[in-house]
Amino acid sequence: MRVCFISHSAERYGAELALLELIKGLIKLGFICMVLVPKKGPLLAELDSLNVEWRIIPYPVWMSRPKWLPYRIGRTLKTLLTAIYIAGVIKRWGCDIVYTNTVVVGVGAFAARLARRPHVWHSHESAYHNPDQKFDLGKRCVTYLMDHFSQMIIVTSKSVEEDYKRYLGMEKLRVIYQSVTLPEEIAHTSSLVDATLFFQCIMIGSLHPWKGQDEAIFALAELVHRGVNAHLLIVGDGGKRFRVKLLQQIVDHGLQQHVKFHGYAENPASLIRAADVVLVCSRWEAFGRVAVEAMLTGKALIGSARGATSELIQDGETGLMYEWGNHTKLADKIQYLHDNPGERARLGNNARKWAESRFTQERYAEEVGNLLFEVVAKANLSKV
């Protein structure tokens, strides 16, 4: 089967890494994969290493920070015009199906309809829990188009499925948890830093209020007040204004020697391995790749009981959970793991075993591959 993948970027963030792992798995199953991206990026070198054909076509997104109406209209027109060209590419490539890897772009669905090919949408995002991101055509219009221009819609978690249920029929929604694979050179190495001098907590993710870095700092302040020599490493970039707010918060609580900013890390697993505990303080996650990476390294994990994080952590077995917004409870959980290294090791070991058996590339590719065969078979029957 020949599959045309539509990516919203050629970077190496969560959705793109999931796409890359999927393509690797599908190739092993005999699929022929082609990829369209809107501009250059590090993902292209990865595709080259897999001998995957790709092409750059500058199609626009239709979901971003709110824009003026004329700008949104212009982007929508460009999406429709670009879809005509992409439909020709799909035909020339001889693709059997079109797979849009995110709801951030809509051009693939229109191109698939023009090329008379079935279309699958993979939503790594929520249509509801995206406070800074708005659809050019509005939420209801886009979900209507998703319903009528797709044969199946894959979602990354049951939490995302719940969000879409209010707009889409359940018969088109399919929950498929993505795979997460650590880089081989990291998967078999030990900690890079001696963390015996203090208790090291780590958070990984873009700097944004929804990620909860401020909540972790509040919890750290509580721990230091209790006499716990805890430190926090914040890994991630973006959010310049929020970073200024976090820096002021650190100064206000006298935590300058306890909090460090690392910036973006392409392979954060080595940093996770050097920590004692991983914190996922997000208000809501569509999947939670960081949580799974923490599990795969065998590290104890504390997460907020919201969104997909609550699906990944079995409280007391593969990690600990706390009520989002309650930084005192978060501090209690961190102190519990600080005071009980044996329990910390048990949780990390349980999490590693569970994640290694659940988030495999083979399982991910097989589930998606079966869905693609199902969609194409139904599309072929409808032509008869």
Summarize it.
By secondary structure, the protein is an alpha/beta fold. It folds into two domains: 2-179 and 360-383, Glycogen Phosphorylase B (Rossmann fold, 3-Layer(aba) Sandwich); 184-358, 3-Layer(aba) Sandwich (Rossmann fold).
Give the topology.
Blueprint: E1 2-6, H1 14-28, E2 32-37, H2 43-49, E3 53-56, E4 63-64, H3 69-93, E5 97-100, H4 107-115, E6 119-123, E7 134-135, H5 139-148, E8 152-155, H6 158-165, E9 173-175, H7 184-187, E10 199-204, H8 213-225, E11 230-235, H9 240-252, E12 259-263, H10 269-273, E13 277-280, H11 289-296, E14 300-304, H12 309-312, E15 320-322, H13 327-339, H14 341-358, H15 361-383
Parallel strand pairs: 1-2, 1-5, 2-3, 5-6, 6-8, 8-9, 10-11, 10-13, 11-12, 13-14, 14-15
Antiparallel strand pairs: 4-7
Helix pairs in contact: 1-15, 3-4, 8-13, 11-14
Explain the overall architecture.
The chain has 15 helices and 15 strands. About 2% of the residues have low confidence. Helix 1 crosses helix 15. The chain is α/β, with parallel strands linked by helices. It folds into 2 domains: 202 residues, Rossmann fold; 175 residues, Rossmann fold (3-Layer(aba) Sandwich), CATH 3.40.50.2000. It starts with a strand and ends with a helix. This is Glycosyl transferase family 1. It comes from Nitrosospira lacus. Keywords: Transferase.
